[in-house]
Amino acid sequence: MRPRMQPRMQPRPERDPASFPARPYDLVKEFTIALVVVALLTAGLATLFSSPDERPVTVASWSRADPADFAATAVAELAGSSKSATYGAPYNNTPGAGQKLGPVGLQNAAGVRIPVDTAGDFVLGPLRSSPEPAAVTAAIATWTGATGTQQQTWATNYTDALGKAPDGDPAKVAAGDYGPVPAIDSRLTALAQSGALDGQLLAEGGFYQSDYTRPLLFLSDGSYLAGLADAQHLSGDQWGMMNETGNYPGQAWLWLYTFWYQINPFSTSANGDALVWAVMAVLSLALVLTPFIPGLRSIPRWSRIHRLIWRDYYRDPH
Amino acid sequence: MSDTTEPAGDRTGGWTGALRRRAVRALPPDKLLPDTQPSYMSSWIYVFGVLTTVALLVVIATGTLLALEGPGWWHVSAAGTYVNSLHLWSVELFMFFMVIHLWGKFFMAAWRGRRALTWIIGSVAFLASVGTAFTGYLVQQNFDSQWISTQAKDGLNSVGIGAYFNVLDFGQMLMWHIVILPLVLGLLTVWHLLMVRRRGIVPPIDALTETPATTTPQATAEQEQS
Predict the structure, then answer these.
(1) Burial B150-159 (b: 16+ CB within 10 A, else e)
(2) In sequence order, which residues have a C-beta less than 8 Å from that of residue A301 and are 6 or more positions away?
(3) How remote is the C-alpha of A316 from its chain's centroid?
(4) Which positions in chain A touch B104 (Cβ < 8 Å)?
(5) Which sign, positive or negative, has the C-alpha torsion A187, A210, A228, A276?
(6) What is the three-class DSSP state of A23?
(7) Closest partner residue to A111 among B99, B163, B207, by Cβ?
(8) Whether A300 and B205 lie within 8 Å, measured CB to CB
(9) Which chain B residues are closer than 8 Å to A306 by Cβ?
(10) Cβ separation of A25 and B35 shorter than 8 Å?
(11) Taking the CB of residue A61, how many other CB atoms lie within 10 A of it?
């Protein structure tokens, strides 16, 4: 026979706040004081610490500061072997590219909505739309008339030669079978250093523009931008994206998102980004639905922190 | 009070009158702007709700000042740089106050007593705030924008969002930052505040009317869910 249960206080729906003793409380006064305090605090912090504003990298400043990196990146864009050229959706169709969550490939499912052809958009297009020396016209004709295999042979040979040249300097590359690649690369570097390429990458034949997708992809394909970021402690393995240049707090609220990138399997998986997003989606949903998740919604009762918050009430409930 | 018990004169005014009556029923003036609060509302943690609200107002005000002169102004003007600094630090304060507010409400189990919707709106507002701040970093037009956007694109692209929400497109991100997300965040904030006023401040945990009864597992589950 089961023991008879002892009478206890039966849990009931929460009491109406109006059923508790009340005390005067001036919400408008509190709001006004808070507004003044926060405005003054903001002004004080802005006066003391200002805000970071590191000048952006341009294609011109990149190609002048590190012409070897620019030249090598330009060859990769021309040959279709750069990060952007082989990225997959949403920029291009690349077999095997695109992250997956198990069998689900959301990246590819979204399709190629922002088409990017690195050879045409970053190299050949800008060269064609500029005053073109006859040697460059001939080089482009030779390149476009060659087979894909021949193009890859030239590009690979030249990339290898650049790697072996002192400081990666195109002027010090040993003689070899590079086809028209050096002429194209050299002219693009000259255009970049003059500043013309910045405008061409952005304008794309139009006048008004606000989409920096192509110049930013080109910049991020080189190692110069990443080197500057690394020096500012902004790399991915340095909790990169949540920080900003200088000693500023940055987006500290992204700590959990950035945290996953520091540990396995997220830091090593080919699908690391998708995995991090899946985890954050689940955690965000859990935050929103906390009131309905058994266990999670009981933590406040177990933690006893509420005894501290309402210590006056618990000291004298009546 | 049901409409059937209302005097005929109270049902006038068409849709407008019906809306007014419904609004007043849900939030009568003394509930919308009360001059008293329950005596248990006695802790510094309560301050962080109003601090979050006023910090958001400072964020909107300083952002509006930046919008008046356009996105390039603050790079070339001392006054612009200062206004940008105001905007940055008000955002830092806003996020700090909001996170403390959120943790406080979590440990108060503030969703009890038909307040789950208030919690949901608040937590969605938190996520919207993270998105709004993020797009702010993307439209600074400096090295931080370049680096953050080129890093962030991979995460967004990996789950297909980047195809529609292109962080490398300055124009698109600027519109999200100064129009779409502030509108969403503003509406969520107003809704959240109205829900707080409607339901009142959540009572302390276990502050129940005490009547002898037999505890059942079902009753315990109901209490946890409420």
Answers:
(1) bbbbbbbbbb
(2) B109, B205, B206, B224
(3) 53
(4) 309
(5) negative
(6) strand
(7) B163
(8) yes
(9) 107-109, 204-205
(10) yes
(11) 16
pLDDT in tens, A98-137: 999 999 999 999 999 999 999 999 999 999 988 888 999 9
Decide: B135 and B168 in contact? Cβ < 8 Å.
no
Q: Please name the residues in contact with A4: beta carbons below 8 A apart, sequence gap of 6 or more.
A: none
Walking along chain A (318 residues) 10 residues at a time, the average pLDDT comes out as 42 77 95 98 98 96 96 96 96 94 95 96 93 91 96 95 92 93 96 94 84 96 95 82 86 93 93 97 98 97 94 86
Full-model pTM: 0.90
Question: Residue type at A203?
Answer: A
Q: How many angstroms separate the CA atoms of A8 and A159, rounded? A: 81
Kind of pairing between the strands at B36-38 and A22-24: antiparallel
Write out B80-111 in H/E/C secondary structure.
Answer: HHHHHHHHHHHHHHHHHHHHHHHHHHHHCCCC
First to last CA, chain A: 40
Chain B residue closest in CA terms to A54: B143
Total residues found in chain B within this entry = 226
Q: Which ipTM was obtained for this model?
A: 0.91
- CA–CA separation, B183 and B178 (whole Å): 8
DSSP state at residue B214: E
Contact A8 B215 (CB under 8 A): yes
Query: How many Å apart are CA A113 and CA A106, to the nearest integer?
Result: 13
- Cβ distance of A52 and B36 shorter than 8 Å: no
C-alpha closest to that of A170 among A60, A58, A66, A59: A66
What element of type H or E holds B37? strand B36-38
